[in-house]
């Protein structure tokens, strides 16, 4: 296992260098980038659609969609009249900063304030790859169970905020929200937890208000 | 991306060599090994518990638990009086055959007929790693959504059978079972799909009957 990590080290370093270049390019345009991480089916695209609906009057928004295969999610975004760039990794379990660079090359950056990156559905691999984002945010959905911080601590520690999605399904699942919040607080005391339902709308305002604060704060720096 | 794959190639070859050694060792003892793949929270441990309950009178069973961190799942298995070996990968997103070899070293193989490997929760990385198993089986759970075969085709193609879990939550989610089955059939026409609820019990018999057939058939060869 140590061999695997050593062998990949130069690639990670290259990734970081390209990520810094992405960041400098976005800073020069005043664009905030959010890297959204979650398991498959946790509701990344649904949260992006809810976020677009709440913030599109205030910010110019585009989406970079990372998937192993298919362009289902990009099409859902484009149906809302929002630009979406599809990256198909063809089996790679995370996005890398070189892929983001190519996506940025295809976007008209001038009208943009916010780029949302939907990473590949995976609670492990994307955690260690800096893409040039301002923040990583992760989603856990209620059906996945309240024990996930114990099992996947890395992603809970790497996230600047944590969204607990599908809150409307709490009555159906044996999910202890207090236990979940206690685990998260132990791993990442400063990260806010937004419990919401991206499709039903419950709790979405607190999330989008926080995101808007992060965007505005990044510009005043 | 091609660079990354090339660099990993020798490691995959080593993995395959050790997997073949695992397979020969298990064949010599008449032990069937199942590699169980799914997203985090899809119900791998719940399916293992239901499978143990159904088959423990007929077969000697042990479990190898793969997790990034924690031993929650192993403890749940051991509470049933079933041997469980915990592998914590410490950030690696899949199990490898060298890890399985070490787990086999710690088990008393003589009384065993079936070893169930619970892989790390991930729809991508474990797909390409042969561990010496007889079959890979994947679980998709209803809350993850019916579009996952389009998005993660590799794992649906690699699986010998597919379990659709949390069937009792179909009324709560917008999940088109027919669409799901059509996608699966296009990717993997020979794989049976077992729709069930591992916790509620619905549909579990068809799954455990199939698994028992596979075990018995592997011995008669």
What does this structure look like?
- The structure is a homodimer of 221-residue chains.
- In chain A, 43% of the residues lie in helices and 18% in strands.
- Chain A is an alpha/beta fold.
- The first copy, chain A, has a single domain (2-220), classed as 3-Layer(aba) Sandwich (Rossmann fold), CATH 3.40.50.300.
- Chain A has a seven-stranded parallel sheet with strand order 3-2-4-1-5-6-7, with helices on both faces.
- In chain A, helix 1 (2-29) runs parallel beside helix 4 (97-106) and helix 2 (44-55) crosses helix 8.
Protein topology:
The structure is a homodimer of 221-residue chains.
Chain A: H1 2-29, E1 32-38, H2 44-55, E2 61-67, H3 72-78, E3 83-88, H4 97-106, E4 114-118, E5 135-141, H5 148-151, H6 153-158, E6 161-165, H7 177-187, E7 193-195, H8 204-220
Parallel strand pairs in A: 1-4, 1-5, 2-3, 2-4, 5-6, 6-7
Helix pairs in contact in A: 1-4, 2-8
Q: Helicity range of the residues of chain A?
A: 40-55%
Just give the CATH class of chain A: Alpha Beta
Largest interface: A-B, 42 and 43 residues
The CATH superfamily of chain A is P-loop containing nucleotide triphosphate hydrolases
Average pLDDT rating of chain A? 94
E-strand count of chain A: 7
User: What fraction strand of chain A?
Assistant: 15-25%
Sheet with the most strands: spatial strand order of chain A: 3-2-4-1-5-6-7
| Gross CATH architecture of chain A | 3-Layer(aba) Sandwich
Computed CA radius of gyration of chain A, to the nearest angstrom: 17 Å
How many helix segments of chain A? 8
* CATH topology-level name of chain A: Rossmann fold
| Poorly predicted regions of chain A | 1-7
Largest sheet of chain A: 7 strands, parallel
First-last Cα distance of chain A: 41 Å
- Count of separate structural domains of chain A: 1
């Amino acid at each position: 296992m140590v061999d695997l990590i050593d062998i990949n080290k130069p690639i990670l370093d290259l990734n970081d260098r390209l990520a810094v270049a992405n960041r400098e390019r976005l800073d020069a345009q005043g664009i905030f980038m959010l890297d959204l991480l979650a398991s498959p089916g946790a509701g990344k695209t649904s949260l992006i659609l809810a976020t677009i609906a709440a913030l599109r009057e205030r910010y110019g928004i585009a989406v970079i969609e990372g998937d192993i295969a298919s362009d289902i999610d990009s099409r859902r975004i484009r149906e809302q009249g929002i630009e979406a760039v599809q990256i198909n990794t063809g089996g790679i379990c995370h996005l890398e900063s070189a892929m983001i660079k190519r996506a940025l090359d295809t976007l008209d950056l001038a009208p943009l304030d916010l780029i949302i990156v939907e990473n590949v559905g995976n609670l492990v691999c994307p955690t260690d790859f800096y893409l040039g984002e301002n923040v990583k945010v992760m989603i856990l959905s209620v059906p996945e169970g309240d024990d996930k911080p114990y099992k996947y601590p890395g992603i809970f520690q790497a996230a600047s905020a944590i969204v607990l999605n599908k809150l409307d399904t709490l009555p159906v699942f044996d999910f202890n929200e207090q236990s979940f919040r206690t685990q998260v607080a132990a791993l990442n005391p400063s990260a806010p937890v937004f419990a919401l339902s991206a499709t039903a709308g419950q709790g979405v305002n607190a999330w989008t208000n926080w995101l808007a604060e992060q965007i505005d704060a990044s510009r005043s720096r």
